[in-house]
Amino acid sequence: MAHRGHRVAVVGATGTLGSDVVEVLGERDYPVAELVPVASDGSLGEAVELHGESRAVLTGDVPLRGVDMVFLCVPGEAAAPWIKQCLEASVPCIDLSGSLAGRDDVPVLAADLQPSEAALRQPLISGPPGPALALALGLAPLHARFGLRRVLGTVLESTSGAGREGIRTLEAEVVALFNQEELPEPTVFAGPIAFDCVPELEHPADRSGPGPAEACLVGVVQRLLGDAVPTSLTRVRVPTFAGCGASLAVETREPADPELVRELLLKAPALEVWDPDAAGPSTRDAVARSTVLVGRVRRDASSSGGLLLWLSADPVRLAASNAVRIAEARFGLGT
Question: DSSP letters along 80-133, please?
Fold first, then answer.
């Protein structure tokens, strides 16, 4: 079945996430008749490339009426005006800002977790943040086969999770330290990040509970699993430029032998199971991949029904790929 080309808007097209969405559109040969790349005034004069053609970035108040699909790749605090415009113009929007992830009336969808046709047809769809998507893709097969009683984990997030400015912050701090200069004032993170690992950089009002980003991460994973599995996660920012990792301790309702688990995960979509005799997978191994790498699947000696496993992923590429595949599913474009 032939499909006419789409007018596709990528809002935040010059950021790390927006750039990856444009790349994935090209890699998957999405039928883009016209790309509408939108960015902030700071990107005035820049251009993006798709299928070998350069397109000038649009800034300011760009009308979206007549666009077939919008990928919203801006920070959460900048998303509201664009979401309002999409609704007023009746343009379907896949929001990757995270601003809609906590709203019950907006579906949070993973292309590999069989979203319903009704959910795909909603005017607003929330694309899950990459770390939450990686966790859900790794946990979903275990939950479906064995049932999850509890999940405990530590999620290691690189500076790319904060966009280009996060990457530039790490670069500037590394240069300053090597040159024995004073570190630049923190503007992206709550404190310095170079050569350091900092748990939960956001400061919750209730310091005895999870931080806001940790609570959001847990909430999105639970929505993707379709079950409020008791989950506790510690979020740690690490001084790497890309990729994320997660060390998970999982308690299952039914006995789960590690060999059986490995066989199950080998058949699951979007997962690559690492050779148990090989080192890794490292977070660098996952960079630029649209899959989640799984390694170190083993019994938890401290728990009668427990498993330990390690996940690594490129959260930016994972989120971008998922968003494009959701759009494909919405329009029946195949895989």
Answer: HHHHHHHHHHT--EEE-SSTTTT-TTS-B--GGG---HHHHTSSEEEPPPHHHH
